[in-house]
Amino acid sequence: MNEKNYGIGQSVRRVDAVGKVTGETAYPGDINMDGQLWMKIRFSDRVHARITKIDTSRAEAYPGVVAVYTAKDVPVNEYGLIMPDQPVLCGPDSAKEGADIVRCLADQVAVVVADSEEAAAAAVKLIEIDYEDLPGVFDVFDAMADGAPQLHRHAENNVLVHYRIRYGEIDSAWERADVIVEGEYRTGWQEHAYLQPEAGLGYIDDSGRVTILVAGQWVHEDREQVAHALGLPEEQVRIIYPAIGGAFGGREDMSVQIVLALAAMKLQRPVKIIWSREESILGHHKRHPTVIRAKWGATRDGKVIAAEAQVYGDAGAYAYTTTKVLGNANLMVSGPYEIPNVKVDTYGIYTNNIPCGAFRGFGGPQGAFAAEGQMNKLAEALGMDPVELRARNVLREGTITPVGTPLPPGVTLDRVLADGARQSDYWQETPQGWQRLPAQQPANPARRRGIGMAMGFKNVGFSFGAPEKNWATVEIHGAAEIERVVVRQAGADVGQGAHTVFLQMAAEAVGVPIGKVQVIGHDTAEAGNSGSTSASRMTFMAGNAIKVAGEMALQKWLDEERPATATYEYHPPSTTPYDPETGYANPNFAYGYMAQFVEVEVDLETGHVDVVRVVSAHDVGKALNPQQVEGQVEGGVVQALGYAVLENLVSQNGRILNPYLSTYLIPTIWDIPREVKSVILEYADPRGPWGARGMAEMPFIPLAPAICAAVHDATGVWLDRIPLTPDSVVPRLREHGLGVI
After folding, report:
1. Partners of residue 287 on adjacent β-strands
2. What are the residue ranges spanned by the domains of the chain?
3. pTM for this one?
4. Which residue, 489, 619, 594, 588, is CA-closest to 544?
């Protein structure tokens, strides 16, 4: 077949590009139906309290109000992605034990449905709620203390999860270490700040199903949770995603889905809601803040022989995906290195803060911040180049990880490190090993430049024994020749361009021009379960499903079965959970590998950290769409830059003090690096479709420690707490006598 017929490896223009640029593409907030009503939510007024009474009479009497719903109206008043530990609506007279307690300000207490948005907004303020305040806890160490307020019966001392790794003989290893470095690392909350705040439309479709138009990351999981809370069979619920204005993990958990479905089911009329940006920031989960205490030891020849860490993650008031996020942090806090003696204790702890859950990197950025910080400090203590130190310790094919098993086949950490260092223009290979070139200093003596680096690894796919599969159907239409190919694949396109790549995959599998392929997805009524668009898994999982389904359909078509239809459900190699005592596991079936090299300029007077240049090297296995791969690298770098330098979510006693994009600052065009150089490496993953690995989260993971290493190179000061806002940087510079006027 002619090469132009093949779909992969080309920078195909995104199928949604024109519609999004022109504004024709419809997001959930853009969609209306005749006769629709409007909903507003009453959130909790307390961080921890028992609701003793809810009086809705004034709200019900407000002109235009059609209905007010509280906890007593929800058939099965519970939900949760990992465990159902959160009420849909908090209040008395609920079928759910403990639903009368609010545990954070993100808890929803009541909803008002009215004939206009204005009426619903006015009426929701008229609901009168009587609270019996309960003591709150907002610090992870306070929460774990004996006698602390207990948020959930199933979590003694508020510890939701505790993971352990016990590998080798850590105590005797310290005696053999020539150099030992210790540090305490702190990371903050991060807001997803996706372009489209939460919005949705609930209605009853032509088949009588409760139907929700919303933005999410897994239509079938949303359906399962909605059906459970409403006490309905899953086939009576339908979830449809229109265009999705970003996610980054922030749409994995429920926001408006269940209450919209509740109102639509009870009223048999369309009901719409749109959250404001303030409601979005106050109402959906955040990245887990962590405190990580680390101690690492190495020999004079640069062999890391011991690593010990304690990881404390603030789960907030409910579980969300804390068990999985902290599972990843537990794995990655010792880095992608062969270390023969490792001891790790990782805790996910309930507090009365905003719930925390999935966010790009999913525990990896927190773990890498400590691991790479320790490696950079070891390099300094040993007088060794940081690239050279890593080259002597990275995991390779067949080497054993601290969980007692090797990484899956296709380990390329050494090549990613070397290729990235070469192409960074900051490092050179010499007979003595890797050596860094000095940074060129600015003319202004108040500003100093520095260079730093870090690396990392990240799982592709669900981890630790979680069921993993992806379903695809390919239809081939045409008699004498293939005229049209239809791909049914539910994987969510959250803005990353998944649907474009699905087209390319199907075109490649069937051998037709991309223009002949159509994707049908984002609808539980039209496609089977794809799993979540998370864990950098969709390219890998959907690709394997589409590839085989396409090849099967093509064979049927060649055998004169026309039209031809084939369905394939891909199951990757199984994974296993941690052993509760030792941490032994086969945690993942595939990984992505990355290394980043950063140049920064530090203003010694103001404490401003300007990230000048980032070189981001990634093994993607096969770049199915090179332009989109570069887009993921650039987007991930900018988002990670915000996490490292700018984004300071302030929470005081469970209350977010800056729930606006005017006070919670994300990177703008004035903040981004002058250059983000993408080094795209293609070392095929033996299990990936056409060799592809997932890579969406990978550019995020090493950037913060690389920036901190560059700041240290510029100033001699180690900064182990992010974000590096000027008010946190200046005192540390002054402690070292820098920038004093």
Report:
1. none
2. 3-25+469-570, 31-134+195-246+251-283, 290-463+580-735
3. 0.97
4. 489
